[in-house]
Amino acid sequence: MPRRKRDSARKIASEPPQNTTLTAFFQLCQTDPFAKTLLYLDVPIYYTWDKTRKIFQRRKQGMPEEGHPEIMKTNAIGRVYTVHPNNAECFYLRMLLHEIRGPTNFTDLRTIDGYICHTYREACQRLGLLENDNHWELTLQEATLTASAEQIRELFAIILTTNPSNPKQLWDSFKRNMSDDILYQIRQANPELIIEFNDDIFNETLIRLEDKCLAINNQTLVEIGMPAPQRNTFSVLNYEITKEKKLQRQ
User: Fold this and answer.
1) Helices in 16-113 by DSSP H: which ranges?
2) How far is Cα 239 from Cα 26, in angstroms, rounded to an integer?
3) What are the φ/ψ torsions at residue 41 (nearest 5 degrees)?
4) How far is CA 162 from CA 7, 122, 132, 144, 167, in A?
5) What global pTM score does this model have?
6) Could you tell me how far CA 138 lies from the centroid of its own chain?
7) Model confidence over 190-246: pLDDT tens digits?
8) 3-state secondary structure of 12
9) Which superkingdom (predicted)?
């Protein structure tokens, strides 16, 4: 190996890994008693991020926190990066960051009532976070802010394969978001008609969802607790559109 490359490799090996905002939060909780009371997403309210030093520092301006006059706060909103459920352990780690206050390391996030769980998923289970679909509701709500209908369908298909407790309720809450592109395509093809969401459009969405679930783990929607799509009814929508066009021409 050339000398320059050897020196660079030696330098990298000798340098400690750079802080991320999460590891900096752990360090903050080790030294700052107030930080120990916070969730990770609360940190930007009371601290600023020093990009050069890779550390959090207490805000010097803002409103004093009630009961802690030395602590300044603003209305800054913290956000934990969205994680796809396919990346399972990172997904459950993200859930724990919304629940565990003042962790000083990754092990703290897996420690529930003194017991160190083997995985982040196990920690979520011990906290009761997987007993209902609140985490899936939050995941889908966040997806609707930036994802396309096709991407939301893909996400929902993956969620369905994890056996949520009430998939039908999740479907009812987000079926419009998952059907936006289908409605758009039909409106583009029929600009003279007023077309809104309807059962036939939702049925086409169910067909596409079932195709994804069959590809992922060979399960039909009925097997997962979802309504069964009718494979021949999207033609009914086409028939209704054709009939309405004929009526308009008369």
Assistant:
1) 21-31, 43-46, 88-97, 106-109
2) 61
3) -75, -10
4) 48, 15, 12, 20, 10
5) 0.55
6) 7
7) 888 888 999 989 999 999 999 999 998 888 998 888 999 988 754 545 545 555 555
8) helix
9) Eukaryota
